[in-house]
Amino acid sequence: MDTILEFIENLAEKILYYLPTLFWAIVIFIIGRILNRVVMNLFAKGVAKTKLDQTVHKFLASVIKIVITALTLIIVLTVLGIPMTSIITVLGTAGVAVGLALKDSLSNVAGGVILLINRTIKVGDYVQINSFEGIVDEISILYTKITTVDNKDIFFPNGVIATSPFINYSSEGKRRVDHTFGISYGSDYKKAIEAIRSVIDEHNLILKNEDVFVRLSELASSSINITVRVWVNNADYWTVYFDLLEQVKGKFDEFGISIPYNQLDVHVIDNK
């Protein structure tokens, strides 16, 4: 019984001895968290007054948050009485171990820096990566988030984007809309071209100062194919894409031009 009481007394003395240190460590940790939020808010307000790109803004915000958190933890460990040399040694050893374990993540960090410097992709761009298309919503330290047209979020590792081919539809101010319309051999292809050109001339979103291509492009097995290529502003791509399909079909009906379906002529030869 005396041993238990002695143990409790020693434990209580140690707790009372370290309680002020633990208290200040907790206070510093809380102050660090508050400081982190304050700095992030000030950074956001400062960026709002500048012309800093949103991509750079979000990337720098992630870096600042990590740096402040790391400094807060180092100060807390120092207050708890852990020598700085020990902290540096542990961080160095842990850094090597973490670096080996998270080499793919480090490549993603490097990829994020490359994307930030080269500016090949930025927030708001419409891109295609692998077989996925969507708008770039965020570029963080490790991942790039893309929102598809049907409102799905896809996360790509920055290392993959930095080292793989991808399509950025927004890097230029305009895009080309391509269509191929098939008409029957019994229809007048010149009338079909005239009908298509009338649709193009009447559409106010098609850039008339750019090359407009409407030519017979193929004599296929079941149809005469006419290729159409027009230029539009990026924001108008899908509107013009579907408008051409609908309006050309209406003009074909108006001009009496038929659109064929796949067919096969079978000739039976009687050898009797």
Spatial extent as radius of gyration:
33 Å
Low-confidence stretches: none
Number of domains: 3
Mean pLDDT: 80
In the CATH hierarchy, the architecture of the largest domain is Orthogonal Bundle
Shape call: elongated
Class by SSE composition: alpha+beta
Indicate the percent of residues in helices. 40-55%
Strand content: 15-25%
The CATH class of the largest domain: Mainly Alpha
Q: Strand order, biggest sheet?
A: 4-3-2-1-5
Q: Give the tally of β-strands.
A: 8
CATH fold node name of the largest domain:
Helix Hairpins
Number of helices: 7
Largest sheet data: 5 strands, antiparallel
Brief account:
The chain is built from seven helices and eight strands; from the N terminus they run H-H-H-H-E-E-E-E-H-E-E-H-E-E-H. The protein is of the alpha+beta class and 272 residues long. The protein folds into three domains: 2-101, Helix Hairpins; 113-168, Roll (SH3 type barrels), CATH 2.30.30; 174-255, Alpha-Beta Plaits, CATH 3.30.70.
Your description of this structure?
The protein is an alpha+beta fold and 272 residues long. The protein has three domains: 2-101, Helix Hairpins, CATH 1.10.287; 113-168, SH3 type barrels; 174-255, Alpha-Beta Plaits. The chain is 54% helix and 19% strand. The chain contains seven helices and eight strands; from the N terminus they run ααααββββαββαββα. A five-stranded antiparallel sheet has the order 4-3-2-1-5. It has a three-stranded antiparallel sheet with strand order 6-8-7, covered by helices on one side. α1 (2-48) packs antiparallel against α2 (54-79) and α6 (189-202) packs across α7. The longest helix is centred in the N-terminal third of the chain and has 47 residues, at 2-48. The radius of gyration is 33 Å and the shape is elongated. The N and C termini lie far apart (120 Å).
